[in-house]
Structures are given as C-alpha cells and as structure tokens.
Amino acid sequence: MPGDGRAYGERMSDDEPVRIRAAGGVVWRPGPTGVEICLVHRPRYGDWSLPKGKLDAGEHPLVAAVREVAEETDVRAVPQVRLPTVRYRSEGRAKAVDWWSMRAVGAGGFQPGTEVDEVAWYAVDDAARRVSYPHDAEVIAAFAALPPVTATLLLVRHAHAGKRGTWTGPDTGRPLDAEGWAQAQALVPLVSLVRPVRLLSASARRCVQTLDPAAARLDLPIEICGDLDEPVPGQQAEECALAAAARLTALAGAGEPVAVCSQGKVIPGALERLTGRADDFTTAKGGGWLLPFAGDRLVAPDRL
C-alpha cells in the first residue's frame, strides 16, 4: 500500500466517537466508452484516492463534500446520491468520511499543488483498481451499483414560524420568526448545491419566505404550487400526499434540478408514496431531503 498508512488506518466500530469529520465525492462524467470517475494523486502519501477533505467548523457535510471536490480537482459538481460512510482511524483518531455521488458540470484549470499534484479520469472498473485503499474501492462499488440518476430535487420543510396559537390572522399568512429567518439563510448553500433551475413553494407565507434568501442568491422567481399545501379543513391528508408525490415525480421527469418547499403534514406522506415504504420521514422545520430520481423512481432519499 502506498504511503505511510496514516491516510487510511484500521477500521473502527460504528459506535466509536468520531474525532475527525470529512466528506468527499465520487465525481463522474460521461466518457467515450461510458462513465468516468475522477481520482486525485496526493504526493504526501504517494497514493490515488477519491477527492475529499475535512469539514470547516459548523459546515454541513454535503456543502463540505462539494467544496472539497472543487478545491482539490477544480471540478464543479452537483451532488446526487449519498454513498456509504467510511470509518477508520487516522493518526490514532477516529475519522468518518461521508460520500456522495456527484455529476461533473464544469471545470476550471487545475493547477498542481502540494496537496494534490495530479487529477485523472478513469472508467469505473479501472478507478476501482487504481485507488490505493480498499475503502475507496468499496465506495466506488456502491456508486457502480446505482441506477443512472436523471434528476435531483431538493425538498425542504418551511423554517420556524412561531406557534400557530399565537398568530391571530389566517394560518397561511403566518410569517417566519427570527429563528426561521436564520434557518432560511442557512439553507441557501444547500439549495445552491443542486443548481436549481426552478424554485417551487407551497402557498403558505412561511414556505415562500423560507425560499426567499435562496431566490435572491440564485436570481430565480418562486413559483406557488398548491399541490405542496397541507390539508385544509375537510380535506384528507392522503389526498395532499398523493398530490405532492405526483408533483415531485413530474418535476423529476422533466430532468432538471428543482428546489421545493412544502409542509410538515405533507412531506412524510409524499415520501412514503414515492419510496413505497412506511418509514420515519418526519422532517424538522428548516430541514429537508436530497431526492435523486432515476426516471420516475426515487432512488434513495437523503435526509439533510
């Protein structure tokens, strides 16, 4: 094995406290004979590996994964599917690396440096043989088992908007409070990652406001969509869940990235119908899901 072994040490148990958090990506692009994967050469260790790096303080792992890919390879990538997390010891400390598959959408001019001095693209099987560590080969194998992703949606629940009982006007007019606006601002980097071409929101004011900061950053209008609304008196929750699931499927069918804001009484039911299974899809206010689709099939919802 190349290097001194400190880059990838022995495996650790899942319940051991993590001291180092990192994230990275299996970055792919179409090649002349099929999919190609990006690998980096690190002169410090003399190895070939998937691009990754440590999280900054307070940074979301998905944001870190895309940032590190860009910093190490000069490739701009859009995240798609969460891959298995790798856990091992690095210089005696427990480390966990979160991985996502990512589609390359652009590249700058790579300049060799002390951290990475070479970037190369390999066919999937060749990449699995070329990497220096079994952990990376296992992540590549998980990527190879995925169906082709045709669209990625970001689905979020509206941010905090106080308590329903303290608002005297119509509930659809209830606005975000100070905590909610902070959550909406924190969502901007995540929304931006999928490079959405459209922003859709349920009609409630708090849903629209949740996307306002992202809309300003991306210079996109917010489209109001009643299919994303929670039930009104006399309406069945099942009806709203089916409508939301159908809308998400239609958006994915268009093959373009979209960010969507809906409500807590809608999201779990919609995801149950899209996945075909009963699971805990409860979504915190200001939280959300990365939804990769293969055609009209949801591949694997990733809780953010």
From TrEMBL:
GO process terms (BP): AMP biosynthetic process; ATP biosynthetic process
Pfam families for the chain: His_Phos_1, NUDIX
Nudix hydrolase domain span: 18-144
InterPro entries, alphabetized: His_Pase_superF_clade-1, His_PPase_superfam, NUDIX_hydrolase-like_dom_sf, NUDIX_hydrolase_CS, NUDIX_hydrolase_dom, Nudix_hydrolase_domain
Span of the signal peptide: none
Key words, A-Z: Hydrolase
GO molecular function: bis(5'-nucleosyl)-tetraphosphatase (asymmetrical) activity
UniProt protein name: 8-oxo-dGTP diphosphatase
Organism whose genome encodes this protein: Micromonospora sediminicola
